[in-house]
């Protein structure tokens, strides 16, 4: 048995060592060894401190109780039983006296180690430079000091209570405390021991009560976060009273331990309990019920004002520019003339629908894939900034043929994706496909070629397994690089050749020696890694390959945005990841649940990631991180260098974060306003756009984020990246936008009209190390309360219910096709609010993909539709919008378009031939269904011929053929070597 235990312990030790050793290799390779050692040494020291406090307290309590045991002959059956227990315990007494404290110490150390961030933030705290409105203390006391003091007090109280219980049980076991007919007997030594521990506990309780005064400013159980009227006038004073009372009783216990008189400490304990019940519970309750509730709207106003100011400051809303916007609802000719730049940039490609289109047109092989939701960025082409829908062609391990699913292929051959694919956001081809600015294999286009940038994607969002890459110079390559089917080297006889490559960067720890191979074989539990002949002296192992994983490991103190995005930067593909410093301890700030606040129709559908299930009341986009898609290198830049929490972490890890002055101009040009921060801010803004405490309390002006009208689920509409010029601004900016409607209350019918529109400026400029002064500027357009501007839900309903629009869209549904509504964009243009929605058609075939066939637009109560956005805008604004859309040069077959007021008709275009064809098609469908019901297949065949004729007539009348399925993807390649 001892041998088995020793072997098991040795195996566990080797596994633990392999995990720690391989982690050290990883951190050393990526250049963040400082983070590895600092975090682990901090955790170790905290573990040891908590272990020693708990273990020492329990040990000495047991030892003191044992030393104070009385020596006497048992004079009763109970004492005789205790004596037998003592005799049975004696052989293992030393082990027990040491083992019990060690066990409790291990539990305490493990729990304390998880609080390492609180300890580090306290030790390296940096003042905020502003104070709270109640006590006048610097805000760092609440975010850095108070959490640590609370943790320390809690740990000491736990150690004291467990030591007290351990001492009490030891005294009882050895007879120093025993039950008699006259009551409880305690020896003099036991009395001193127990009273000292009780006194120390009360001292800690007094400190805890004292700290509780300040914790009221972080309370979230009242009407609003922070100390409200009852807290200020009842809770805070009683906390101070209880602290003083506990201190007095603690002194009484300690004095009683030496004079042996217990009357006063016992009376004091009783009074403390009564005081805690009356002063700590009944008195605040009475104040709340009888003084606050009858006049809550008046007495709480000063504290509501505190909550408003501190919440807006904590979430970066203080400097938001609020602009009254009396939006027009009348579409007049030339209305968009002042918004020509915005009109030219209106995005038509919906990044949430384009994944399958990119896949069918640009995937090339099943072992490649595109993400479910693509990203929106911008690039300068021919001196003009163009919005782009962009993605990288990542490796898809599930696309490897089942006959090729060997360890060798999965980890040594199929190692990376290839190339960037990007399309213009504001236009399409004549048949509705994306107009690519970067595409193909090899990669070509406006953004470069595979010689001007590194196209190989070894690190990406879908790359989750490890790969072994690299070889000495001159070694035959084994990694599958890319298809060659469309290269000049390919031949007609063998068009599906695949090129091979060998990774030439420095991206992972070396596994060329037997020891490292053994350690990684243990880490990944893979005998293949240990035994394969595919590993050589230059081999590197790549793992933890997603951008979020890599940034989270080197910056464990950051909360990361759920949507990293790729960009071609300085000849490399870089993943850009937004990192946040957060706190849940900011005084008077309202808590937000991150996962709930950042969930919308995209996250619910799995299109982008969500933030963790954590509550915060302070957030800053303090770090911009990049991850190289080729070599996995990570760079952290201090984006908000004035954030005090980031400054504290920079003191903890002084070399790991670079100043943003080191960011290249190319990288600066691809920085954008972070999506999850914006979601959290807009969620708060539903209430906190109101800054007057009286109106805030009445809650009559509250807003909600509208539900996504294109989704079948009741999820919030996601924010959209757009290039637009906001009213009052001088130039177009790449912005993140959202709209607001009146507050939606469960169980009621709320009006879906537009009350507000917010945009965050995401243009940081393109000069190295110089951040544009306008970056991060929030501008809120407030529409009048009596506005009649329809909200997204109303507009979507108009699009779907308008008889003329329905007639035209029905043509697209004829045959084996589906009509898909794209994202409904809201833009402040023409003195009002313009809505734009692309309409896609997708055939029902297995290789089908959406193509843009129509564009719907709305302004006020008027809607328009046409084959292009430019035509639709002209139709909407009385024949001349005054601006040219991005698809102005796109020529489609002439079809019917028009406008509608959405009222009692008002259609400006009709098509009798189309209407007749649709009626004939409907009749033919009914005839066919009736024939099938009777089993008359002859009649059914005749009805099908009528249906085909009606569809053909409808297509002719409508003037545009329905979308055809795309050609299938390139055939699957043969097995790689």
TrEMBL record:
Pfam annotation, one family: UPF0182
Q: Does the keyword Transmembrane apply?
A: yes
Give me the stretches of Gly residues compositional bias: 895-906
Where are the annotated segments for Disordered? 473-502, 887-912, 956-977
Q: Where are the transmembrane segments?
A: 41-62, 95-116, 148-174, 194-216, 236-259, 266-286
Q: Classify the source by domain of life.
A: Bacteria
Principal location: membrane
One GO term describing the cellular component: plasma membrane
Subcellular location, record wording: Cell membrane
Topology class, membrane:
Multi-pass membrane protein
Claim: Cell membrane is one of the keywords in the record: yes
Which residue ranges have biased composition labelled Polar residues?
Answer: 484-493
Q: Show the InterPro entries listed in the entry.
A: UPF0182
Question: Where in the sequence does UniProt note compositional bias of the Pro residues kind?
Answer: 964-977
Q: Which UniProt keywords apply?
A: Cell membrane, Membrane, Transmembrane, Transmembrane helix
Q: What family does this chain come from, according to its entry? A: Belongs to the UPF0182 family.
Q: What is this protein called?
A: UPF0182 protein SAMN04489740_0084
Q: Which organism is it from?
A: Arthrobacter alpinus
